[in-house]
Specification:
473 residues; mainly alpha; two-stranded antiparallel ribbon; 14 helices; 78% helix; globular
Length: 473
């Protein structure tokens, strides 16, 4: 692959844009699929809690739905560091300023450690209050607390791991993150199952053992990446001269990361409010909601891979003073991401029932299947606008355009999704051929689809008409 750009960059217009997108997106795609395997394995274990106890089986699925949302909140919190790090490293690498990229790496790790310690302390102290606010009670609340404690305890290592991977992505290395997640999966699956069942010398922790295995995997991943940097990767390496805190570089990372974190945390906050509404429904519907979201992640995580490629390509091409190429790469990434996500949507529609049966093998879990299959089929139609939300938002972040996506997100969640969900979930819908029907969980997912459609249109308009190529970071 011959390129006139600096080594390790992705700015050579002689290489087809689709090929650069594929080369960047594929490792991230497989990385995200590994994350999905971990989540699906955890969900599979939860579905087999207490084989003859209907209440326990449904309660664990509902509790894991809350764990899914709070895990999402952690990834949004990590954006305070990760997005600014990726954008700055990409811009510096595109401009051939490797030493500046290394400074970003060191400050990114410092910030991740600090935010991890603060976040862990806050989550540990207020977890019970949050679970109560979300409306969980009885067995469901107890299981949720058990599941989330290990995650909050080892949060710092997850953020450090994410910060280093984000810097490597900005340098054009999306493979290392995949290898780390592959190792995490290989370690996580036996650990989670061993802690769950009490195999070998491991204590039998039951439901709490599922998340403990995942958290230990992140700890090992962070330690591996820190060690890897002593030898260097993608031009990024430990340097004694950069170890001291650099307030100016830290400020530059946060100047990009804070608006993005406001965006992603507003999504997470909106999602928690949305979950609070869903938790008013029956435990079976809450469990169905979580399983449907877990499968929907097939589409979401696929789009994230193409969004990561768009972010790197936009950032590096702008750093190389090639704004037209940056714009073209963004559109190509969207087209490819939307195609893959639409194919995933077809899978959801056709195979919705067997996908639910995988996690609900018992007849006592039939109410979960009945509530979940229709909403999984519904979300299949929202894959194209969801692709726009994910891929083009990431492309804008690569350019440092972070404020407008925040406003679009706030509008979508709090002016469309939440009000519409409240109305659809609390009012019976009168249809001429069936009479009045209570939508329940279906009402919540109809509101979700409406939100995705509105935000997808708005972010597409921003990418097409906006002056993001002129932003200085």
């Amino acid at each position: 692959m011959k390129s006139h750009a600096p080594t390790g960059t992705w700015t050579d217009a002689n290489i087809p844009a689709w090929r650069r997108v594929i080369l960047l997106a594929l490792p991230v795609f497989f990385q995200q699929m590994l994350i999905l395997i971990i989540n699906l394995s955890d969900r599979w274990l939860a579905g087999r809690m207490g084989p003859d106890d209907q209440e326990a089986q449904i309660a664990t699925q509902a509790a894991q739905t809350t764990g899914f949302y709070l895990g999402w909140f952690v990834s949004c919190y990590a954006a305070l560091v990760s997005v600014g790090s990726t954008a700055l490293v990409a811009r510096f690498v595109g401009a051939g300023e490797r030493e500046a990229a290394r400074r970003v790496l060191h400050q990114s790790i410092w910030l991740a450690a600090l935010l991890g310690i603060v976040g862990s302390a806050v989550c540990w102290n207020y977890l019970s209050d949050l679970i109560a606010w979300l409306g969980l009670e009885g067995q469901t609340a107890s299981f949720a607390s058990e599941y989330l404690r290990p995650m909050t305890l080892l949060l710092t290592f997850q953020l450090i791991e994410g910060a280093i991977i984000a810097c490597l992505i900005g340098a054009g290395d999306t493979r290392t993150g995949f290898y780390v997640l592959l190792g995490l999966t290989i370690v996580n699956l036996p650990l989670a199952w061993s802690f769950y069942h009490g195999w070998w010398f491991f204590p039998k922790l039951g439901f709490a053992g599922i998340s403990l295995g995942t958290s230990i995997g992140h700890l090992l991943g962070a330690l591996f990446l820190v060690g890897l940097l002593f030898w260097g990767r993608a031009g990024l390496q430990w340097r004694l001269m950069h170890l001291a805190p650099d307030l100016r570089m830290g400020y530059r990372i946060l100047r990009i990361g804070i608006p993005v974190a406001a965006d992603t945390l507003s999504i997470a906050a909106g999602q928690l409010v949305f979950l609070k509404l869903v938790n008013r429904l029956s435990p079976a519907e809450v469990g169905a909601h979580g399983i449907a979201l877990g499968w929907e992640a097939l589409g979401y995580l696929s789009g994230y891979a193409f969004g990561t490629a768009a972010m790197t390509l936009v950032g590096q091409n702008l750093g190389a003073k090639q704004p037209l190429e940056a714009r073209r790469c963004g559109w190509v990434a969207l087209a490819m991401g939307a195609s893959v996500m639409s194919a995933m949507g077809l899978v959801f529609f056709v195979l919705a029932e067997p996908m639910f049966r995988l996690f609900c093998p018992s007849d006592v879990q039939r109410p979960i299947i009945e509530a979940g299959v229709p909403v999984l089929r519904l979300i299949a139609f929202a894959m194209p606008p969801l692709a726009s939300c994910i891929v083009l938002t990431q492309a804008l972040r690569g350019a440092g355009d972070t404020l407008v996506p925040v406003l679009i997100t706030l509008f979508g969640f709090f002016a469309v999704r939440i009000p519409l969900a409240i109305w659809l979930m609390t009012h019976a819908l009168a249809l001429p051929w069936t009479g009045e029907i209570e939508l329940g969980l279906m009402g919540a997912w109809l509101a979700m689809c409406a939100d995705l459609l509105v935000r997808g249109c708005l972010v597409t308009a921003r990418f097409h008409f906006g002056n993001w190529a002129k932003i200085k970071i």
